[in-house]
Amino acid sequence: MFRSRFHIIALASLGVVAFSAQALAGEVAGYSDVTHAAASGSWLEVGLFYIVAAAACISALGVCYSKNIVRMSVWLFGALGSVSLLYFMLAANFLAAIQLIVYAGGTLILLVFGVMLTSKSPWARFEPRKIEILGATVVSGTLFVCLSLLLTRADWATTDAVVAGTSMSDFGHSLLTTYLVPFELAGVLLMIVMVGAAHLARQDK
Amino acid sequence: MEHIGLTHYLIVSAVLFCCGIFTTATKRNAIGILIGVELMLNSTGINLVAFDRYMGPGRLDGQIVALFMIVLAAAETALAVGICINVYKNLSTVDVDSASQLRG
Amino acid sequence: MNSHTYEILLALGVLSPFISFWLLVFVGPKLGKPLAGWVGVILGMGVPLAMASYVLLGWWFGEDAASRAMLGEQAFRYHWANLGTVPILVGIKLDSLTIAMYFMVTFIAFWIFFFSVGYMSGHSDEVDGKSKYHRFFAYLSLFAFSMLGLVLSSNLLFLFIFWELVGLCSYLLIGFYFHERVPQYAQMKAFITNRVGDFGFIIGLMLVYFQLGTLDLDDAARIFAEQYAAGTGIFASTFTMFGWSLATIMGVGLFCGAMGKSAQFPLHVWLPDAMAGPTPVSALIHAATMVAAGVYLVARVFRLMTPEALMFVAAIGCITLTLMALIAMVQTDIKKCLAYSTLSQLGYMIFGLGCGAWIAALFHLITHAFFKAMMFLGSGQVIEGCHHEQDMRKMGGLIKKMPVTAITFLVGVLAISGFGIPGTNIGLGGFFSKDEILAVAWVRTFDWNDYSRHEAEHGEHHAASVPAIDSDDDASDNLNGNHKQMLLASDPQHGDSHAAPQHGEAHTASESPRGLKPSAHGDNAHGRAGIFSHVPPMPKWMFYLALFTAYITPFYMMRCWWMTFMGKPRDQHVHDHAHESFMMYFPLIILAVGTCFASYFLFRDLISDASTAATIAPMVLATDGHLHTAAIAAAHHWLITGVGGSFVVGFVIAILIYGRGLGIASAIKNTVGIQQIHTILDHKYYIDELYHLVWVKGCLCIAHIARFFDTWVVDMTYNTLAKLTERLAAFMGLIIDTHGVDGIYNGIAETAIGMGEAVRRPQTGRIRNYVLFAAGGATVVIVLMLLYWGVGSPEQVAMLTP
């Protein structure tokens, strides 16, 4: 299905990077009582962050660059995986797992199905106008520069407090106490979406 | 080694966000636009979790909002794909420029 | 019965014709031909007549003299509005004169309304296919309302309002056949001539308002007397005009209104022309009631008249009665003849008032109303019966065809001629009233000095024994001191005591006319007599003219009757058609009976009853059939025997001339000398021509001059200015408008179009472009935050950090 060898290599390397990073992250931060403070600043964490961050950025740029919808999906998969790894590194283990399961496993597959169902030729290209590409480049570039400036200038009231990795029970407890109403609303929403999607996608008789 | 702080994560998030905007603004394929939106949503997810980690550790607020974000993203994707399929059924294409019946 | 009952009944009687008027205006056409007329008869006049009869009987049989006087004092007043600082009181003037007039108007009008039902049914009343029948009765009802309101008004302002309303009704009814030319001109003439008189009336009203500070009749009279006594107000003015003081001008001004309405000499021209209206209208308005309103007005404002003003009144009346009687001698139109006779008789009334024969003049008004209305209705019957032939030369011998009309007409002729048996109380209305006027005039002319001296001596005797005039019992407080009749003959028991003090003044006055002030008796209120302390005797010519006319009157009336009813028919065609109908001659019989009986016995006493209060004035002279004050009694006796028989002379001459057709008359007419006089009389002294020359031609002349001025001066100037302005405007328009104003507007418009185009461009309809724009906007905001607002700058961070 993939015409280019490049894609296969990229995808494979991404997968390798992802899993190894996950393992490493788990080693470093996730499944031990080792504090972040202890871990932070270590070469492992820094290196790992840069690798994952680079993977995320490259994947995102890949999405931008790709003209083909299938390639975009692949690049998106990389971006989602990288984000999942970043979650791990931020000690959000449960969320990272969810990210992988729901996004990478669910949403992306949904998208790919969508691609396949909606295109006789998945390679079909709809080229935007040059001026649009130029405008988008200028706007997004400017936005990025400005955001970077802002973010680096800001003096965030961060804390270096050491916490243990969050557990699923904490999540469950919060969802059923403090966030009960949004939680239930999310359930209702999902049900409505399910019905709606089924309605939209059903075959005309 | 330098310290990995909040700013690093936020910059990664900014990259993803800008890429999402670019994608949304340049793709004519409906699913391409959807992918751009997903990218932007992920950037906000990174933001939420990073702020949770560095500004209110132990409170889980950011993570839970990120969780809801994922839920919403999934729901949105499901609906959007459904719409795309319907558009395709009707117009035999997913080019958003073709779906211009309402244009005055 | 108290006075409020009277007032309510009389007010209802005024209201009823008003309702009738609106009813006929709105639903008249639906009621149709006979019914609308009967509505007018019943509602418009029947109800007021019932009220008037009830009040008259109650007044007459239910009250003694004292309570009658008191009732008048309690009259109803409603504070309606303020005119400046002067309160305007709507009220009812209730005294026996009011009741007499009210009853006279309603009684006569009722029978004329009744007559009208028959008269109008025989007339073609269609104009443009629409019936005017109901309109006639609507106008009559409105007239009834106005006339009764006029009689009841206690206030000069309201009197004036109703005065104008009756003028309006007169205008409408004269021009009832407005599709013809003659009535159109007649109605305009009547209206305009009356306006001339009303101008004087308004001047009088203004003087009353400004100088006396009230418009109420009684208050005005009281204040007038007080101002005279104190020498203030109107008497303090040194203004004079034509040798008249301001007080005299006020009286003359008010009399001018009467001159218009009662058609006195200079303003008489409208009344003969008013005969163009339907005959019942002539009978009701232009013979019996409305024209009497002028006399009524003079009677009501008698207390505001100075001797000079009264002299003017007498002179005008005297001129009128003579000149009009002469014209009446040569008239051939039956209605015109009666019209001039009416003018002459109105002149008698005015003359009588001017002489001081207040009671006699008003009595003559009432008797005249009866018989003149009857005669006009008779003429209406004749005209109707003869197919609208009005020329008496074509009539004759109608007595065979119209016996009832002829006999009732004859009763009227006898009454107006003063038929009666001298030395007895047997006679018709005119016998008493006209002769009494003449008697008073005789005393005023020939016996004045002797009379006043005699009375004065008589009075001094009383003055010594009755020092305080306040002991008068039946005079109310405010009238008390002013109760200055020189003679109150109708009340002989009180007459002397009334007369006493003031006759004393009159006596001294006769010796030093203006020298005496009221302080002679040390009582300010007595001063009222002083104003009349110089009442001069009348000029002799007035009496002679009035006497002369008393001989002419029977002549022209008998001539009229004879030409119409006696002799041989001169136009067989007219004669063949002549007939009379019950609806029309029944009222004639009623009015003839009224003429014969009711007038003297009822109204004479009613009027003399009123004279006590209504004429605070000074110089009311009167006589009655029973008791004569010496001089007047003598005069009256002499006149009754000498002049009272004048009708015999007049009748004989008339019958001699006209007894055998018109031959003798035309022979006399063609005699040299007489012919010229006849021509002058036939042209009514050329007064109409004179007015036409002076006023109409004068106005046209002025108008032409004004038009010339307008065309060549005013228009020329304006046209030149307009042209200049036009040129300037064109130039300015080119410079400023085209290049300045238009340029600005066009520029604005084009800018708006360009902006629209510019804004339209980004609306591509592509979602991704919008996303880009939104992101661009956010970017711009962030750039601004960085560059200008310093977000995230070290300074701000330092500031925000706790």
Q: Summarize the helix and strand pattern of chain B as letters.
A: HHH
Overall geometry of chain B: elongated
Fraction of helical residues of chain B: over 70%
CATH class descriptor of the largest domain in chain A: Mainly Alpha
Amount of beta strand of chain A:
under 5%
- Can you give the mean pLDDT of chain B? 86
Strand content of chain B: under 5%
Which spans of chain A have pLDDT < 50 for at least 5 consecutive residues? 28-39
Which key terms come to mind for this protein?
heterotrimer, A: 205 residues, mainly alpha, Four Helix Bundle (Hemerythrin (Met), subunit A), 2 domains, B: mainly alpha, Helix Hairpins
Write the layout of secondary structure elements.
The complex is a heterotrimer of chains A (205), B (104) and C (802).
Chain A: H1 5-30, H2 36-39, H3 43-65, H4 69-89, H5 93-118, H6 130-153, H7 168-176, H8 180-201
Chain B: H1 6-26, H2 30-55, H3 61-91
Helix pairs in contact in B: 1-2, 2-3
Chain C: H1 3-31, H2 33-62, H3 65-73, E1 77-83, E2 86-91, H4 96-121, E3 126-127, E4 130-131, H5 133-152, H6 156-174, H7 181-212, H8 217-230, E5 240-241, E6 244-245, H9 246-261, H10 270-273, H11 279-288, H12 290-300, H13 307-328, H14 334-355, H15 358-385, H16 403-417, H17 429-446, H18 448-465, H19 477-480, H20 492-511, H21 528-531, H22 540-565, H23 572-577, H24 582-614, H25 630-642, H26 646-658, H27 663-669, H28 674-682, H29 687-760, H30 767-787, H31 794-800
Antiparallel strand pairs in C: 1-2, 3-4, 5-6
Helix pairs in contact in C: 1-2, 1-5, 2-4, 2-5, 4-5, 4-11, 4-15, 4-24, 5-6, 6-7, 7-9, 9-12, 9-13, 11-14, 11-15, 12-14, 12-15, 13-14, 13-22, 14-15, 14-17, 14-22, 15-16, 15-17, 15-24, 16-22, 16-24, 17-22, 17-25, 18-20, 22-26
What does this structure look like?
The complex is a heterotrimer of chains A (205), B (104) and C (802). Chain A is built from 8 helices and no strands. With 205 residues, chain A is mainly alpha-helical. Chain A has 2 domains: 2-153, Up-down Bundle (Four Helix Bundle (Hemerythrin (Met), subunit A)), CATH 1.20.120; 167-205. Chain B has 104 residues and is mainly alpha-helical. Chain B is 75% helix and 0% strand. Chain B contains 3 helices and no strands. Chain B has helices at residues 6-26, 30-55, 61-91. Helix content of chain C is 72%, strand content 3%. In chain C, the strands form 3 sheets. In chain C, strands 1-2 form a two-stranded antiparallel ribbon. A two-stranded antiparallel ribbon of chain C has the order 3-4. A two-stranded antiparallel ribbon of chain C has the order 5-6. Chain C has 31 helices and 6 strands. Chains B and C meet through helix 1 of B and helix 30 of C.
